[in-house]
Amino acid sequence: MDIEQICEFCLSLPETTECFPFDETTLVFKVAGKMFLYTSLEAEQHWANVKCDPDLVGMIIQTYGFLPGYHMNKRHWITILLDESVSEAKTLDFLDMSYDLIDGKKD
To answer: Cβ contacts of residue 88 below 8 Å, gap of 6+?
Structure first.
């Protein structure tokens, strides 16, 4: 998946907003005011940080070769390299999981 596809998918999720709270190149997607995905628009290697069930982080990293969340709590976030090593369908599953983890906490 590329950044445009990630953006399109995230914005299709209910009540999702996008913003640049850190700088003009770090794109953040939020639901209920909380981040569920962020990425850099300038990185040579495209990636996305997503929220993850802490009980699954280790297994997901080992199974898919993802990385612990870049600049985030390594227990709750993973970094997905958008290099086509994981199918688009599986990548979308992880984006959905991240969204659901945050959306389920709304008041």
So the answer is: 1, 5
In angstroms, the CA 30 to CA 48 distance is: 13
- Other CB atoms within 10 A of residue 1 CB: 20
The H or E element containing residue 28 is: strand 26-31
Give the pLDDT confidence of 37-90 residue by residue, as tens digits: 999 998 777 899 999 999 999 899 889 888 888 888 788 999 998 888 888 999
d(CA 30, CA 7): 12
Query: Tell me, what DSSP letter sits at residue 60?
Result: H
Q: Report the DSSP beta bridge partners of residue 40.
A: 26
| Nearest Cα to Cα of residue 39 among 58, 57, 67, 20 | 20
Could you identify the residue written with the tokens 């983890």?
A: 101
Confidence of residue 105 (pLDDT cuts 50, 70, 90): low
Taking alpha carbons only, the member of 86, 81, 54, 83 closest to residue 67 is 81
